[in-house]
Amino acid sequence: MNAQLQPTGSAYFIAEQTEKDETRTLAVLVDNEPGVLARVIGLFSGRGYNIDSLTVSETEHEKHLSRITIVTRGTPHVLEQIKNQLERIVPVHRVVDLTAMARERGQERPLERELALVKVAGTGDHRVEALRLADAFRAQVIDANTEHFIFEITGRVSKVEQFIAIMKPLGLVEVCRTGVAAMNRGPEGM
């Protein structure tokens, strides 16, 4: 057998040989009812797809609709399959590939933001440096005492990750992240 066609552990081994992995942000509008999130997550886990970020909240209270924002990775073929399979789940109303839509409009990525709470413990110079860097990153102090700070930072995922990395040597204790919230530019909605 030709070495290029040997399976690599995935059912999509042929596509993996010719296509590069991409990161995509999907917005999924669903009924806000018990079990819907489990069904969406089950689709990913049952097929071996990974979720890099997952954010869920009810967005239209009167209609009882929730928006699930999923950041995932795969070949274009696999990502198209994920989108098609999501659309077949009964309580799913709409699936939008925000990354593809942004590219169609000449934009690199959709608008993506994440919120993180970052706890840093320290005294003396480390404490002063943590405060100085937090100010540079526009992170807000939301809790503090003489031994620690809890910062709130909002921004692109790369900004949040950079802030966390900078806080590690200064006494990083704990991080809590919300996951990505994303939306495309322009007047149209989902």
TrEMBL record:
InterPro entries: Acetalactate_synth_ssu, Acetolactate_synth/TF_NikR_C, Acetolactate_synth_ssu_C, ACT-like_dom_sf, ACT_dom, AHAS_ACT, AHAS_small-like_ACT
Keyword check for Cytoplasm: no
Keywords carried by this UniProt record: Amino-acid biosynthesis, Branched-chain amino acid biosynthesis, Transferase
Function: Catalyzes the conversion of 2 pyruvate molecules into acetolactate in the first common step of the biosynthetic pathway of the branched-amino acids such as leucine, isoleucine, and valine.
Gene Ontology cellular component annotations, sorted alphabetically: cytosol
Residue intervals of the ACT domain: 25-100
PROSITE patterns: ACT
Catalytic activity: 2 pyruvate + H(+) = (2S)-2-acetolactate + CO2
GO molecular function, one term: acetolactate synthase activity
Upper taxonomic lineage: Bacteria, Pseudomonadati, Pseudomonadota, Alphaproteobacteria, Hyphomicrobiales
UniProt-recorded name of the protein: Acetolactate synthase small subunit
